[in-house]
Design goal:
Helices cover about 15% and strands about 50% of the residues. It is α+β, with helices and mostly antiparallel strands.
Length: about 280
Amino acid sequence: MPHRLKSIDAMNIPFVKAHGAKNDFLLTLAADAPANEALLPQIAVAICHRYTGVGADGWMLVDPTPGDGFDAAIRLFNSDGSEPELSGNGTRCAAALLIERGHAESEIRIRTGAGIKRLRLLSRAGGEFQFEMNMGVPRIVALRDTLELSAGPRDAALVDVGNPQCAYVVENFDFDWRTVGAETERHPRFPNRSNVSFIRLVGRHAIDVRFFERGAGETMSSGTGSTGAAVTAIALGAAISPVTVMTPAGSLVITWNGPEMPVYLTGPAQIIAEGIYRHEIIAPV
């Protein structure tokens, strides 16, 4: 006889939906999130689902409580429930929410899994914000590294911008880059997986990029991916700062003046909706 199912718990989770260059996130104040730590990854998967949830690339908990050296803190979950160190686009979205709710003004320091990031508001029109974000000093792991893939070896650059980035320079996107991205993300070279970007050189100050992000798959844009791609292009001598990163969702601007210097990301964040997500936990009886 088949099991009957009944709801053993249900919770209402408030959220604000925002996007940074169409890289979208659901933001919940930390005080409104469940206290049960074990529930958070499964809620992230459920709330981010494009058909049965609200839909997003990630779910973020935002804590406006200031601390030592920071004004607020965030915790990010990818749509697969994993917890990355940093999202450039997501952090801008959190800054927009904090400013809109009156927790910050034109400058804000946000503690992330990759340390404290400083953001400066450049402009605002209603729910649309433009920020400059100090991404910190990037670390070039290897400018030329060969990865053995199922389709054969491929040369890559490995960069750390608060999270791991693997960048491929390509002539065009007329190949199955999504499959290459998925295989690269979980390559043995990256025990904690990696974000992947594909860079097409456009000019001395511009690159065109596609992204396959760790824990989220293909995304329309990526702040850390754009940062890693631009740093790679500059370090290879193929581009000069500032670099406009052209993505399927629009452009971001990266400024980097070389080794031991911080890299700055300039881009938008827009608050587009808010509501309540009803999360149910069911079990057989």
